[in-house]
Every structure is written in C-alpha cells, then in structure tokens.
C-alpha cells in the first residue's frame, strides 16, 4: 500500500499517517496479446521494445485512472493486473468493474433481449494473494458469467497462432477491398478447426507482437460462442451482441451489467471458489471470430476499479486544540476531501471532526 504523510498545521500541531488505497489498477504484471489489428498500436511498439517495456506501456495506459486503452488481440490474448490492496467480496454487492470500450448501436438492435453494437466480451479471472508474496502466482479462478454453462461454450480450448513466414504473399479478398490479406496469420485449435486473422487496409503494421522472438503463440482457456450477426446479409454491417453479464468490454462502462461480483468465481471443477477477496485480475479475449471488414473480435481494456475502495485510516492520532482522538479503521471518502480540510469519517458516513489545512 502507498503511504502518504499529511502534516497539518493549525492552532495545535496535528499529524496523521494515512494508508491510502487507490481504487484503480496499481500494477500491470503481464501483457501478452494474441495477434490482432490493434496489436503493436495499443500500446505502440517501438523498435527495441521488449516484453517488459510493453508491459510498462500497458501499465501507463490503464493503471490509476489514466483511461488509456490496450488491445488484447484475438482469442486468448490477455493482461494481468493488480490492486494495491485486497478487493473485498461484499455480499449482494458488485465488487469491481473492468473498463472497456463497448457500446450499443444507435439503431437499437436487440437479439433475444441482448443489446447489440460493438461488444467484445473478455473472460475475467481472479486470484487472491494466498502466499502473501505480492505476486500473481497463486491459483486462478474464472468468473462464471452468463455463458459459462452454455452448451456452445468450449472449456479447455486451445489455439496456436503462427507468425507469417518471411516472404509471405498476401491474399487479398476479391469481393472486399478492405481485406488486404485473408491468409495473413494462421491459427489452429484443439477442436480440429483452423482459420486466419485477416489483415485490413486500415491497419498496415504487423499484427503479430513484434517484441516476441518466437514464431508461434499458444493460448488456453474458455471460448465463448460467437456473438456477431451480419445484419446486412452482405458483409457490410456487423453487430456484436452483449452477453447478459460477467464479461469485460461486453457492456458500456456506465451499465450495471459491466460490473463484477467475486462470488461468481469458480474452481477448475466448476464449484464456487468462496473467495473473501482478490488481489489480481486476468482478462483475455473470449471469442474467436472474424467479422469481415471490421476484423477479428478483440477485447480492449481501459482500466479497472474496486467499487468498495476508499482511503483507510489506521492508528491515526490527532491532537486538535488539546483534544486527542485515536482513530482506527475509519475512512476518508473521495467526496470528503476539499481545499479547506479533511473530514474524518465514521463508517456510517458522518463527520467526527474537521481538520483544517
């Protein structure tokens, strides 16, 4: 946790030590996108960058409240990030939200009650720092979203992507000029299927992560059913429909359906994980689909927020006008701060004392 020392001058000297919990991402531990049209752009790769530099660029984009954006590429591409404290599992409440760039279509498309637009669902996994070393090396649990038990959802899915060979000759589409290479990046899965990440005229950079020295990438996890429909019937207007709940970049950030509950976490056997809280989150692109001229579906991440976090005071001793208060476990909320002073709050939200700066 970050520690900030506030020294307050008034008619008597008042000092307190504050354990400050930021509600936002504090650290990106790993950034490993699958190939995709925004890879090497969000964040931008520069010659000489290695995996750690790209991790730092991803952290700069989505940590704190920066609201930058990173792309996870095609199915399986992921990011691992953490908070500077434990995100509590509060019964009957949403615990955190992962921010993306999903939106609904102005045309009002709906399919079986699901709103349509640009919804690119990412699987969310969570982990608790059980060994206390501050690293995401403990067991991971998947949040069982609305499609977890859908018969079309594939658990134990695996995809291998292949870097285009040197001298690869593009295969442009005859019918769609937006597709400059329909045999660009080959993928093969463990379900006896294969296909390609197309290259589009709108993004001319390499779609394979340039900082990697291997020619293949392998990802494993859960694959959600395809969520797109070609509403035009001619390959000109694709609508991606939101799943009801439980996925990142699946509903607009302002929607309640974008929020997550730790109670949804399940073990590898599908049993409730019963976690009291979490420290780390992993998000990966959950669908493996190519939507014509708009390309592959790729989850984008803009940040994340603990919905319970606020600044927590621990063992605070305040000497104010010769009166001494010892305060433990109370909170300073975001709204309570002002240029005039700091409100020391009870759990119930009422101010006990104002300390003026």
Question: Structural class of the helices, strands and pairings?
Answer: mainly beta
Q: Count of DSSP E strands?
A: 29
Task: Tell me the radius of gyration.
Answer: 23 Å
The percent of residues in helical segments reads under 10%
Strand line-up across the major sheet: 3-5-20-10-11-19
Report the span from N to C terminus: 24 Å
What are the main properties of this structure?
357 residues; mainly beta; 29 strands; disordered C terminus
Give a written overview of the molecule.
There is one protein chain. The protein has one helix spanning 51-62; strands at residues 2-9, 13-20, 27-32, 70-71, 78-88, 96-99, 103-104, 110-111, 114-118, 122-127, 140-143, 154-162, 179-189, 194-200, 216-223, 228-230, 238-241, 259-260, 265-266, 277-285, 300-301, 303-306, 311-313, 316-320, 323-327, 331-332, 337-338, 341-345, 351-356. Mean pLDDT is 86; it is low at 1-19 and 311-357. The longest helix is centred in the N-terminal third of the chain and has 12 residues, at 51-62. It contains 1 helix and 29 strands. β27 and β28 (341-345) form a beta hairpin. With 357 residues, it is mainly beta. It is globular and about 55 Å long. The protein starts with a strand and ends with a strand. Helix content is 3%, strand content 41%. The strands form 8 sheets. A 6-stranded antiparallel β-sheet has the order 3-5-20-10-11-19. Strands 7, 8, 9, 16 and 17 form a 5-stranded antiparallel β-sheet that branches. Strands 1-2-23-26 form a 4-stranded antiparallel β-sheet, with no helix packed on it.
């Amino acid at each position: 946790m970050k520690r900030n020392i506030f020294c307050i001058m008034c008619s008597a000297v008042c000092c307190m030590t504050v354990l400050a919990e930021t509600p936002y991402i504090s650290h990106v531990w790993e950034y490993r996108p699958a190939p995709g049209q925004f890879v090497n752009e969000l964040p931008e790769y520069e010659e000489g960058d290695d995996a750690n530099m790209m991790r730092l660029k991803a952290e700069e984009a989505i940590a704190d409240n920066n609201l930058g954006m990173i792309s996870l590429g095609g199915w399986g591409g992921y990011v691992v990030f953490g908070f500077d404290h434990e995100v509590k599992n509060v019964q009957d409440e949403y615990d955190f939200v992962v921010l993306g760039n999903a939106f609904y279509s102005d045309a009002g498309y709906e399919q079986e009650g699901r709103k349509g637009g640009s919804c690119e669902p990412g699987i969310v996994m969570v982990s608790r720092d059980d060994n206390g070393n501050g690293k995401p090396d403990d067991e991971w649990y998947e949040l069982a979203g609305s499609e977890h038990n859908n018969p079309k959802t594939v658990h134990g899915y695996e995809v291998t992507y292949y870097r285009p060979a040197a001298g690869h000759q593009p295969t442009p589409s005859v019918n769609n000029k937006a597709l400059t290479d329909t045999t660009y990046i080959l993928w093969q899965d463990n379900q006896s299927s294969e296909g390609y990440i197309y290259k589009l005229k709108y993004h001319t950079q390499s779609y394979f992560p340039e900082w990697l020295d291997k020619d293949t990438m392998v990802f494993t996890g859960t694959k959600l059913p395809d969520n797109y429909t070609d509403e035009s019937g001619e390959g000109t207007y694709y609508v991606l429909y939101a799943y009801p709940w439980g996925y990142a970049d699946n509903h607009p950030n302002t929607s309640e359906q974008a929020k997550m509950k730790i109670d949804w976490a399940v073990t590898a056997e599908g049993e409730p994980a019963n976690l009291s809280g979490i420290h780390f989150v992993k998000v990966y692109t959950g669908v493996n689909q190519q939507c014509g001229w708009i390309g592959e579906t790729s989850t984008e991440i803009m940040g994340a927020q603990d919905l319970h976090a606020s600044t927590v005071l621990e063992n605070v001793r305040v000497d104010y006008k010769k009166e001494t208060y010892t305060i433990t476990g109370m909170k300073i909320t975001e709204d309570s701060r002002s240029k005039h002073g700091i409100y020391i709050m009870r759990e119930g939200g009422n101010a006990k004392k104002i300390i003026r700066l």
